[in-house]
Amino acid sequence: MKATDPNPDITVYFNGRYMRLGDANVNILTHALHYGTGVFEGIRAYWSDEQHEMFLFRAEEHYSRWKSNCGIIRIKVEETARELCGITAELCRRNGFHENVYVRPLAFKSAPRVGVQPDDRDGMAIIAIPFGVYLDSEKGLHAGVVSWRRVEDNAIPGRAKICGAYVNSALAGDEARRNGFDEAIFLTESGHVAEGATCNIFMVRKGQLVTPPPSDNILEGLTRDSVMQLARREMRLEVVERSIDRSELYVCDELFFTGTAVEVGPITQVDHRPVGDGTIGKTTARLRQLYADAVRGEIDAYQHWLLPAGMGVAAPA
Ligand code: PMP
Question: Taking the model in full, what pTM does it have?
Answer without folding.
Answer: 0.96
